[in-house]
Amino acid sequence: MSYTLLATVFNNDLTMVGTYPALSYNLMFDAIANETSTVIIKDTKGVFEGGYIALRENNSSKILYYGQIITVDTDTQSKLMTLSTNYIWNVLNGDILVTNRTGESYEQHIKVLIQKYSTALGNVFQDLSTGSFVVPYEVTSSDGAQVKNFIDYLIRGFKLHNVLLSVDGISQGTLSNGKPYFYPKVVIKQISKTVSFNDKNWAFRNFKVTDSRNLRGYANELWIVDKTTVDMENPVIMGKYWLQTDGLVVNRINDLVNQPTQVSIYLYDKTATDNPDNDSIGRANLGGNSYSHNIQFSVDIKNDFLGIDHIMLGLQANILYQGKTYKSILTGYELSSDSNEIRFTFGNLRFGKKDLVSNDI
């Protein structure tokens, strides 16, 4: 059977509206998309768009989900209220400026950006901290200063560094009028915990695996070409890079490069003053096309292997499937009142320091 959850609803000023049984829910946990979840509670006065909602298991203080309410739909006949919500990072769904930048802590970098670009510091982000790991980073903006969506930038950071925003609890404060309010404890952190799964274990079922090593159709050879080239039959090539089947980008072709290759071209502007070096261009343009896998499978909510309290986006895993081991990251999962299962989605996100940001972020 599914979990019985309690939904606590907060106003935009973080004062509490109340706590109610979640009569129905479909919670989408996704680190690479701003997915919408739904929660149904009884018709309640004082629930509005822009407020917040926290869900936890009955008789537990651990927050399973914390989101921003984006729509409220009330059915007067059934006297039920459907709340559509996005994860807490939806508060950051605006623009930021992206430029070249290097630092020793990606978590601190994200914290500074939130402090600079978000007005929620006195509200839902007033308790904002970073994890204990030091994650160096290097951002190169290929076209100079660019305007990007903040959530898209956070997704890039997750893919490259496995760093995300997590709500680790709720604290209480007091407004100037003496009324209590409740704010989430938001932590920017890299997940380091690793677990193992085996397709021969009866608890894990309905596997669906895609492996790009069995596919073609993605570029694995890059030409860096002078933008001033005028002869298409004789382009001025400044450098070439190849993508190996193990994900490494090299500047000499070898037996680890699938052939025949598929060429991609990067136009290099010699007049620009902030060009990245050729190696960075090679890694950035071919790295996203590298070997990748996507693994989905289901498990009962109540099982002896992975309790719901230990499930978190960014969880690292070694998955043994049909005799092959996949090193993976938990990128998404779904929790629904209509099912006694959790559906996991794992992928092989690439850890690295450098990020070349182009116009197609």
What is the count of DSSP helices, taking H or I runs of 4+ residues? 3
Shape: globular
Average predicted local confidence, pLDDT: 88
Structural class: mainly beta
Which segments are poorly predicted (pLDDT under 50) over 5 or more consecutive residues?
none
* Beta strand count: 25
Question: Rounded to an integer, what's the Rg over CA atoms?
Answer: 23 Å
What is the makeup of the main sheet? 13 strands, mixed
- Proportion of residues in β-strands: over 45%
The separation of the N and C termini measures 41 Å
Protein model, in words:
With 361 residues, this protein is mainly beta. It has helices at 106-117, 150-161, 278-287, and strands spanning 5-10, 16-21, 24-30, 36-42, 52-57, 63-75, 80-87, 95-98, 101-103, 127-130, 137-141, 146-149, 163-174, 180-190, 194-198, 205-211, 221-226, 237-243, 249-250, 263-268, 293-300, 316-321, 324-336, 341-347, 354-357. The strands form five sheets. Strands 1, 2, 3, 4, 5, 6, 7, 15, 16, 21, 22, 23 and 24 form a 13-stranded mixed β-sheet that branches. Strand 18 and strand 19 (249-250) form a beta hairpin. The longest helix has 12 residues, at 106-117. The chain is globular. The mean pLDDT is 88.
Question: What's the SSE blueprint?
Answer:
Blueprint: E1 5-10, E2 16-21, E3 24-30, E4 36-42, E5 52-57, E6 63-75, E7 80-87, E8 95-98, E9 101-103, H1 106-117, E10 127-130, E11 137-141, E12 146-149, H2 150-161, E13 163-174, E14 180-190, E15 194-198, E16 205-211, E17 221-226, E18 237-243, E19 249-250, E20 263-268, H3 278-287, E21 293-300, E22 316-321, E23 324-336, E24 341-347, E25 354-357
Parallel strand pairs: 10-14, 11-25, 15-22, 17-20
Antiparallel strand pairs: 1-2, 1-5, 3-4, 3-23, 4-7, 5-6, 6-7, 8-12, 9-11, 13-14, 16-21, 17-18, 18-19, 21-24, 22-23, 23-24
